[in-house]
Amino acid sequence: MGKIFRNDGKTLIVAMDHGLDGPMRGIESPKKTIQKIVEGGPDSIIVNLGILREFSKELKQLPSVMWTVPLDEPSWIKETIKMGVDGVKVGCFEPISNAVEYMKFLTMGVECEKWGMPLCAEPIPVDPVTRKEITDLETNKKAARLGAEAGGDFLKLVYTGSPESFKQVVDTCVVPATIMGGPRMETDRDILEVVKGMIDAGGCGVAFGRNIWQHRDPTAMIRAISMVIHEGATVEKALKELE
Fold first, then answer.
1. Counting beta carbons within 10 angstroms of the beta carbon of residue 100, is it exposed (0 to 12), middle (13 to 18) or buried (19 or more)?
2. pLDDT digits (tens, 9 = 90+) for 6-43
3. What's the start-to-end Cα distance of the chain, in Å?
4. Taking burial as the number of CB atoms within 10 A of a residue's CB, which of 47, 133, 235, 243 is the most buried?
5. Which domain holds residue 225?
6. pLDDT of res. 48
7. Has residue 219 been placed in a domain?
8. Do strands 119-125 and 44-47 pair parallel, antiparallel, or not at all (unpaired)?
9. CA distance 66 to 169
10. Residue 6 lies in a domain
11. Tens digits of per-residue pLDDT, 113-163?
């Protein structure tokens, strides 16, 4: 955990595990994207197996590397140790009523505890019809607590829209809480205001993907987000990094 989080207890993670959906804009050339990420100076990166294996030299320049593993494959944890990663991320994108799927976090939590592998649990409640993330406060409080109770060392959660509401999620989940970025936000200000709101609510960081590597300048965006997370910068000050 000390490799993923800085001494201030916060982290800036770049999620680059979207490639299973194909060569999305921004990650068409993984090596170039990783180089831009490294230059920005994040605390960690999340990747899939193929990227981890093929670009290990570039990834070693980062403080820590995490591997996304399937929720129903606890046996993979032993393999992650062989690959030398510093943590694993496991997600569940299901309606919160689907207890069978969410309880798989518990099996994964036990396996990670067995091997001493930090677990980032990503319990993301979605609408059963549209499959879009639900930002409802009570639903996300339940999802967050479930992820913590099942053994997540820290969580990757949906931001509920305001510091006031997300503070209730943070106060409920009992382990460090980071947020996902979700779809590409419209403006730089939108991105940084979400980051600032998360920090003001007591959150511990972000695990952003598209809002970093689809930005016109991923390196600068990482630096701007880092200013808010690690330096307590205002949105206005951080925006100057992007001018």
1. exposed
2. 999 999 999 999 999 999 999 999 999 999 999 999 99
3. 34
4. 47
5. 11-242
6. 97
7. yes
8. unpaired
9. 24
10. no
11. 999 999 999 999 999 999 999 999 999 999 999 999 999 999 999 999 999
